[in-house]
Amino acid sequence: MCDDLPTLMRQARKHVMSESYQEAIKAYHNILKHEGMQDSMDVHLRLAWCYEKLEIWDNACDMYEFSTQLYQAQGELISAQELADKIQMIHALMAKKEPNDSTEGMSFQSLLATLKDMGKSFVISEGDVLCEAGDPSQVLWLLESGKLGVQLPEYLEDGEDELSATDGLSVLVGELGFFTRQRRSAKVWAKEVCQIYQISFEMIDSCDDLAFQQAMQALLKHYWMYPILSKHAIFERINDVDRRALCDLFVPIEVAAGECLIHHGEDHDGAYLLQQGCLFFMYESETGKEDVSSMVPGDIVHLGGLLHAYHANYEVRTATAVRLLHISRQHMERFLKTRPWMVDVLLRYSRRPAWRQILRPDDAYLWMTNREIKHRAVSP
Description:
38% of the residues lie in helices and 22% in strands. By secondary structure, the protein is α+β, with helices and mostly antiparallel strands. It has helices spanning 5-17, 21-32, 41-53, 57-73, 77-94, 108-118, 175-180, 201-206, 210-230, 240-247, 329-336, 340-350; strands at 120-124, 129-131, 139-151, 161-165, 169-173, 187-190, 194-200, 251-255, 260-262, 271-276, 279-284, 290-295, 300-301, 315-318, 322-327, 358-359, 372-374. Helix 2 packs antiparallel against helix 3 (41-53) and helix 9 crosses helix 10 (240-247).
């Protein structure tokens, strides 16, 4: 081989980042020629993704089918089924048929219609401000037509972003406030006449329709959990399919204010992704003093708890009532079985000084996610 494996991997990543997918495909095929790489799940999934970007559907399906067989052989039936569904959707697209985009009995399109029925429609004119950074979060918006400007105060030098809706496409606005219940992170204003639906958090929370709440949980995974994990140093190394499967292993729990979540020295099962509220992280500093750090939505704590016999050298308490997404040691063990490299990463992480064991996301995740919901189901 003219290039060693690490060089080819760096080249492939560089080509993907620059959207040179043809070159990336060549690099990944050269990687597959290396000894021990022929059955690499990760490389085949990355190849499939590049083929999708170029709309070379047959080759994409070939890569996904190969990966499906690998998942089945490893007993990863959820991931295998997810890929099988994806292949079916691609075939439906090729046949110009509308695929099934349902989630627990309610598709995102049905959810969209339900949210509109719950809310009220209004129009704002060019220059009108929808919200200011720092405003309380109490409503979710759906942009139906028009264009909104978005500006994060911390990133004034980067200019403004835009959110646009067209026929057949709605755009979520203010969903971060809904998922985390934090104050608004950006100023949002109309750059032209906009039609918007407004739905109160209270109305969404009080809806007791099981299919609706399951679809809202799927929305949380798609528009918040997945982008968050993509911006964490450990989980961003996992391929897209596996990262979405990982989201399904988290279970929501709610804890009242003032509770001790993890005791110092405890062998506590599992790790937590903080969705709502604030946690206090208390530990002994290198100078022997007791220090306290705060944790906010998007932070992950107690990754060592995914390993056996890990005893926390810190204490975690709830500063407010919190909503946490918990992943258990048992669920993670099955995930790690075919990903042994992650065990080494978790071990290294758990041996850090206590104050470095809070995993915080790259804050760019706020505006890296796609907020669009199509009115009709289409292949992603």
